[in-house]
Amino acid sequence: MAFALGFSASASAQVGSNCMPTCDETDGRFLSIAGPNLSTLTNQDVNVQLTIPGDVGEFRIWVFDGDTSRNSGTDPDTGEPLHWDLNSSGQGELRFELFYDDGTGDPVSNPIYPLDGGTMPDNDWFTAPAIATDPRAQGPDGMFRYRLRVRLIDPGPQTISNFKIRAAPDAILTTIGEPFGFQAPLFSLADAEIIYPDFPHNTGDPNVFGNAVTTYDGTFTFFARAGVLGENGVDPQEFVVWDGDLDHGSYNGVTADSDDPDTPNNLLPVWAVPEAVFEGAQPTSNFNPPDDVAAADHPVDGKFVRTPSVVYDVHPAAADGLPGGAFFTNTNPSGNQEWERFRLSELPEDATTTDFHANSDPPVEDLLAGVYKIVVRGMDLQNFNAWRVPTICTTSEGDPCPEPMSLRVGDRVWQDLDADTLGGGSGVEADGEPGIAGVLMNLYSRDNLINRTVTDTDGEYDFRVTVGNLGAAARYTVQVAPENFAAADPRGSVGDRVWLDADGNGLQSADEPGLANITLVLRDTDDQAVAVARTDANGQYRFNELAPGAYRVDIADGSVPPGLSLSGGSDPSSTVTVTSAAERVDDIDFGYQNTNGAMIGNLIWTDVNRDGVRQAAEPGVNAVTVDLIDLGPDAAFGG
Question: Against a cut of 0.70, is the pTM above it?
């Protein structure tokens, strides 16, 4: 089962951006890296892959609060208070390194650039240098991929550094399945003034926060894409989340961590850092800080506390591909420094392997491909936490970032001016034929309307599409939307063929070729020309879009080659009546025979099957010049 997970933003401070974990500078939600001596999952790098469409020439990233400031004091340059980090030793600066990574393996070893957090501002966005996309980062699907590694240069004994990452809306950020930390920090009064906008609260007592307005409500919302969408879509059979160090359990023992049956007790995951402990029932005394704590520096009135004792809900995708209302709750996630697995399966399993399955209460029924939502509730401030899921970024509007768009589908809608050819138009765009602006176009995948756009002033349009969701082939259908067409009365047509009547019997024979480039004129009862048509390589023609009424079809003067005369008569015209709407008249033909002695000639055609014999379906070739050469008196060429 393949899936990707993304954070939602609670505000949209950076409109039109993609961010991890959010774009809001005031919501208290951060990616996080911890140093030693903190009883948590420490020295865990954060690795983020940037996926960029193949037609993008350059890109850049932004980092919010990339410094690792001391948790007290002021900026020596500005005198402003410092924010969001725990750094009692003055060590623990971050380094941001960008590598080529074409998606086929490990990134190139030498970074394109290292950026040190010590050069970045506190509580503000840092703009990284623009990078021109490079073929060394381009994968087989045409997408450019780069890897951003964030690590502590020299971890201090008690360091937690928090930051956010932002990119342009056409760059997709993912954590490529590696574990990472996240936190809602509150380390200083400067942090409190942001988390609690009316700090120190209207009571005048800085220790009373129970009813204070806050920008952080204890939730983190994640989105995940599971399965494969598209024409060859595949629904997942299971959905898995690994949560780490969530410190489930309350300070007073009312809520306690317990053993998770489907996570091994004697085996650490191969990707876990050494500080992780075996999964089991972790005692509340081990929590640092414990969830829903009541220590002197964490009063129960709510300065740090968020209720309930931490849990999270998983909302699987519904039939429309978006998260549904039904959900499954992990009421007992990980305790201190341990990893636990939360697994949904539509197969009939049991609690030793799966938290919810086909036979559980509630049962897991058909898991569908689409977007899944994970809502964490009761995450206390200062609590360092970790996930292992392939995450994707969130947009500034709070939606999951779209899948990387690697291809464009589209072209042009134009006015087919040479509509005097067979079928009412050549169907081939010619020079000088203008585009049609404002045409509504639909894009379908798996019979579902997935996107709409409108042609520009030149009639051009395009849709950004994926090569295939998570590696599968994808098929798309483009439609000119029905809304573009007003209801119209059905129309009739008149036509047939002009041919060489070799035997002069007035009947078309299979071996008698059509006459190409013969001009025909359609006239009404007032002898006014209504339309003009020319025969194609097979001698066929047609007048379309005719209202009911009487008409006459004439062969234009001078249009027939010399030496040919009409079979069985001398009047190259024929009257016809279209009696009803949508009537198709197919018998207005004209046969010509050679009246100028012997005739040499037959037919040039496309021999599709290369057998030297013309079949009925093999078309003639139009406008080929054939030279007739007199051999002279010696009956030899060149004499």
Answer: no
